[in-house]
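User: Fold this; tokens only.

Assistant: Input:
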Amino acid sequence: MKYRNLGKWGLKVSEVALGSWVTDLAGTEAEKIALETVNAAFDKGVNFFDCADAYSGGAAERFLGKALREHSRNEYVVSTKVFFPMGPGANDWGLSRKHIVEQLDKSLKNLGLDYVDLYFCHRFDPTTPIEETMQVLSDMVAAGKILYYGVSEWSPVQITKALAAVRENHLRPLSVIQPQYNMVDRYIEDEIMGICAENGVGITTFSPLAQGLLTGKYRKGQPLPAGSRATWQADRQINNLLTDENLDKVEKLLPIAEKLGVTLSVLSLAWILRRKEITSVITGASKPAQLESNVAASGLTIPQDALDEIEGILNYKPFVRRVG
């Protein structure tokens, strides 16, 4: 396993991380397999584990806390997030001082920790001044409850405003962002990567396999695999990605992966890690074998001719508008 610094900061995290958004598995066979997967991650050198308060109403945090208790605190980096509703009250959501302070304490209790290494604002809150949000996050760093903080799905303008609020108010720095990034969703290349590079902000990406599209298990003209996410996912995110255009790209990418002697999943993860702006890629794994496959992407260098071929297949058109 290779490790990278969190942007310009001193924290070092594994290039491949493990995300935890499980449902309540307590006492089930699935919980046993999930615990085995976390332990397999440690065995393979993974030191970064991602979660959120809203995942399964706190059950994901409680599971992750239980799994991490078997390991020394210095062995791992753990993150969680705040924003989404955690109750019916008017202040049970968002990025106000009240909600962040109260929810952070709940997350720490769920995880069984005194502090979290990374704390993310899951979404932007238009009902709270950005100065209020940045101030309370800085205060939580000063209080020792957070080591580094950042944001997740925020726009370039929102990230820029947050960085400005930090500078103007002399706050603890915004150190990391967690956006979606994969071969078929490259929006962060347009502006966000440049903003992060200029400000030394780390990038820990999620959904690297585009809900499973980039695993190669969904093929054009073939039925959906039995039990796959596309057969049960309520919000149909993967189904919306199964377009002819995307499936054609998969068909063209598969021979490149085969030529390099890796799976399409590993190729897709290594492709993300080709960018020096990326700190870590957050993967999902429901069993140890999937985790062991994912970590093969760490340290894998894709030859330039293969990168050029991939670029031609993806045919990404950055948003550029000439001004003046």
